[in-house]
Prior knowledge:
Blueprint lengths: L2 E4 L2 E3 L5 E7 L9 E6 L6 E6 L5 E3 L7 E6 L4 E6 L8 E7 L10 E5 L2
Parallel strand pairs: 2-10
Antiparallel strand pairs: 1-3, 3-8, 4-5, 4-9, 5-6, 7-8, 9-10
Amino acid sequence: VQLQASGGGLVQPGGSLRLSCAASGRIPSGSDMGWFRQATGNQRELVAQITSGGSTYYKDSVKGRFTISRDNAKNMLYLQMNSMKVGDTAVYYCNKISGQLPWGQGTLVTVSS
């Protein structure tokens, strides 16, 4: 199974983007999934997580601004990002929380005026 994130781009501070993650194969519906990001010079970090049952977790700095969701029937994962900040600039990736699959190329999100 390969994961491909898309939907990144250039957005001004305060703007919004919606990221999508498509799986080339079926991801077990019981897998907890997450969005990760890696800014230049930093380690990759978990931004948002969603369990198979729909429970969510967010990094403190994105709480109230980002929303993670999933569509198991379509093997899709989403991240709605609102009120974006310069500090959200990074390459965003999707993956399982445990038993991670090979990392895809990610999608670059740049927040800048």
